[in-house]
Amino acid sequence: MQASLATNYDLTNLETLEAEAVFILREVAAEFDRPVLLFSGGKDSVVVLHLARRAFWPAPIPFGVLHVDTGHNFDEVLAFRDRTVAEFGVRLIVASVQDSIDAGRVRELPGGSRNRLQSVTLLDAITADQFDAVIGGARRDEEKARAKERVLSLRDGFGQWNPQAQRPELWSLYNGRHHPGEHVRVFPLSNWTELDVWQYIAEKGIEVPSLYYAHRRSVVRRAGMLMAVHPAAPAEPGEATEELSVRYRTVGDASCTGAIASVATTPAAVIAEIEQSQLTERGATRADDRISDTGMEDRKREGYF
Hints:
The chain has a six-stranded mixed beta sheet with strand order 3-2-1-4-6-5. The protein has two domains: 13-195 and 296-302, 3-Layer(aba) Sandwich (Rossmann fold), CATH 3.40.50; 209-289, no CATH class. The protein is built from nine helices and ten strands. The termini are far apart. It is an alpha/beta fold. α1 crosses α2 and α6 (194-204) packs antiparallel against α7.
């Protein structure tokens, strides 16, 4: 009599999230003609890129990556972006906010952040390459406007988002139908948290930019945040410069992304810090989200990530 083989179908939390994200990425590759992955070099987009390789292995990733470059990025992140793209063998498209400024498509305000200007540059890139699906690393736990997003979120012919026109996604059935000129934003990490992302990074040994770990950096204290002294954000008159041990919970435009005091130099130490935090990474370190209670939603309606 042949002994029966017991099979364990119980999945851990990370395995469940991974399986969901892989399914979403495969659905996008099957449903859409010209998808692209937004890749800034930040931790969330890095995880999505690794999930894409897992989803299609041993075949190559069937879409390229798009970076909207504000021109005010951290050098460490740009170097990481280029190294990672070369390692994965994917096509990199860089859409430049500076080019949009030079062409008169957007106007830069003196002393202002370029973060909001990215919307026009992104939409121009989507139109130029006729992308019909744009995959991003946004998560619902980051910010209340992002919590309103579906996994597949329709954008109209002007690239705008209407939170009242969201489609139901019952039983993990995703509706990618759209008219010519429209496109769909796709968020495979919708149900992940910052803690999930870091636990996945630790479990899989994923490399992220060095800014995510504690390092010494010259900063100033501004609006309750530690802002790096950077060519895009120099110290203002009367501000005292300090050199502190800091790390970044999110990386973006240097003019509006703050650091936190930290001594965490490993994924395990970062996880321990996150477990004690009562603020999301955007709430704690992104000045552009503090402009109003609806700052993120207003930008998303214009076409922001």
